[in-house]
Structure formats: C-alpha cells, structure tokens
Amino acid sequence: MRLLPTTLAVVIAASTFSIPAQANDQLAANICNYVQTNDKNRLRKKLKENRVKLRNIYSGISCNGDSLLRTAMKSGSDKVGTFVAKRLSVSDLKAAEADGMTVVQWSEANGHSGSTITAAINERIAGS
Predict the structure, then answer these.
(1) pTM of the entire structure?
(2) Which Pfam families match (predicted)?
C-alpha cells in the first residue's frame, strides 16, 4: 500500500521546536502506518516521542488522500480510530473534509455507519 503523507507544517507552527521537513514526512508516514495496522500503542508512543498532539496535526496528515479517521475506517482499525476520535475537538469532528463531507456523512455513505469509530465520533459530538 502506497502512503502519500502531506507535510506537517502545522507541527512546526504549533511547536516550540523545529522539525526538518524530512522528519515531518517520516512522522506522517509512521502515523499513517500505525493507523492502517491498528497499532494504538505505537501511535501513542510516536506522538509522545515527537511531542505533538493529535489535534494539532490531524488536518495536516493525509494517508492515500484520506484523513486519519477515514483511513482507520477503511482499514478496520477500530482501536486507533476510536483513540483518534477521542483526541480531536468536536469542531474537527464536525468539519467538512476535502470532498465537502464530514467524517460521519462519509461513513454513512460508504457503509461504515455501524463502526465503533462512527459511534465514538457521534458520542463525542452528542456530548458537546
């Protein structure tokens, strides 16, 4: 599977330290890989090692053109997808993505409305 991570300019802007562009690409590739393989522990460790918060970099990462939540749903990565949903702000969860659909709208249109990730997203939105 080919990964197409985008540059994480948000990480540099939101951090007190600078990360070389190549390291940003490697971080994005690692995050995409951990999401696709449902490896929550390694994802948490990688975020902690790089001192970044998921909510600060979420919009800057694309895995094969999809957001992390869409990637998790497509991959059946329920543990990681639920983790991501719980770490994002409600406004991020409600925001339209590149195709104009929110993650919940996309999940319903693509047969993922019954996933635990969609349930976690809906729970976060309802609790706001």
Answers:
(1) 0.82
(2) DUF3718
For 48, half-sphere exposure in the C-beta direction (CA atoms, 13 angstrom radius) is 6
| 124, two tokens | 């976060």
Dihedral pair phi/psi, residue 62, rounded to 5°: -130, 130
104 C-beta neighbours (distance < 10 Å), count: 18
Residue extents of the structural domains in the chain? 23-127
Q: Which residues of 50-82 are buried (b: 16+ CB within 10 A; e: fewer)?
A: bebebeebbbbbbbeebbbbbbbbbbebbebbb
Q: One digit per residue, pLDDT tens: the chain, 128 residues?
A: 444 444 344 333 333 334 455 668 899 999 999 999 999 999 999 999 999 999 999 999 999 999 999 999 999 999 999 999 999 999 999 999 989 999 999 999 999 999 999 999 999 999 86
Report helix, strand or coil for 16: coil
d(CA 109, CA 118): 12
Give the domain 23-127 fold. Answer: 1.25.40
